[in-house]
Amino acid sequence: MKRLAAMALVLTAAISIFTGCSAGKEASSASGDNKKLVIGIDDKFAPLGFRDEKNDIVGFDIDYAKAAAEKMGTTAVFQPIDWKTKESELSSGRIDLIWNGYTITDERKEKVLFTKPYLKNAQVVVTLAKSNLSKLDDLTGKVIGLQSLSSAADALDESPLKSKVKNVTEYADNVLALNDLKIGRVDAVVIDEVVIDYYMSKEKGTFKLMNESLAPEEYGIGVKKGNEALLQKLQKALDEMNQDGTAAKISQKWFGEDKVLK
User: Which of the residues 80, 100, 199, 227 has the least number of beta carbons within 10 Å of its own beta carbon?
Assistant: First the structure.
């Protein structure tokens, strides 16, 4: 009996310690004071976040997040996620931030907290350089590709073009959409201007932009609803990076100019 009683005491103590640690970890994360900041990304979203030839995750947003995390006294950990489930990943606590060309929209504001915008962007339409398509009206009866559940999809849904095209093919990422454009499975792709500018610089003579864009937009960083403490701490770090030139330096590295919104 004494042995059973002793085991019971040990078990009770262990449960208490585990519960205490769990509660402490949750409180730490909620205040933004945890030692690691888990950031959900699309690792095929060049030049903001993507894998280089060594399979390392690199990009403007990657460097930007690392610098912000350093100012916050923490370390950025990048977690590739299915972009279609980004808000679910955030609300479940599996990631702390959505940070990878995440467009600010009214619909998303209902699901997450946003920092102030840090980059301007636009949804544009790209086709092959050899194509005779040049304006949006030329896409009547054509097949359009885009990333599923992205702001490209939102822009197309709100455009008169949507009712004119033959079909819209959705992809898990922009790379797949552009690959299908190259082999003729789609006639054009709706994509972020920041992204296609990068690919056009890498694959000169492959793509061309339509004369008209679909929608201007701005990128922000998504924080879990209710976590105002983390939002404020992150925004403070971003503001400091604007003031001390850190943000401009990172932008020069990836874009050749200072594109960061002040």
Answer: 80
Q: What is the pLDDT along the chain (262 residues), one digit of tens a residue?
A: 434 444 444 444 444 443 444 333 443 344 445 579 999 999 999 999 999 999 999 999 999 999 999 999 999 999 999 999 999 999 999 999 999 999 999 999 999 999 999 999 999 999 999 999 999 999 999 999 999 999 999 999 999 999 999 999 999 999 999 999 999 999 999 999 999 999 999 999 999 999 888 999 999 999 999 999 999 999 999 999 999 999 999 999 999 999 999 9
CA 124 to chain centre: 18
In three-state secondary structure terms, 182 is helix
Q: Per the structure block, which two tokens stand in for 257?
A: 């100019």
- Look at phi and psi of residue 93 and say left if phi exceeds 0, alpha if psi is from -120 to 50, else beta: left
Q: How far apart are the first and last CA of the chain?
A: 70
Q: Which two tokens stand for residue 142?
A: 């054509």
Q: What does 29-72 look like in DSSP terms, one character per residue?
A: HHHT-SSEEEEEE-TEETTTEEE-TTS-EESHHHHHHHHHHHHT
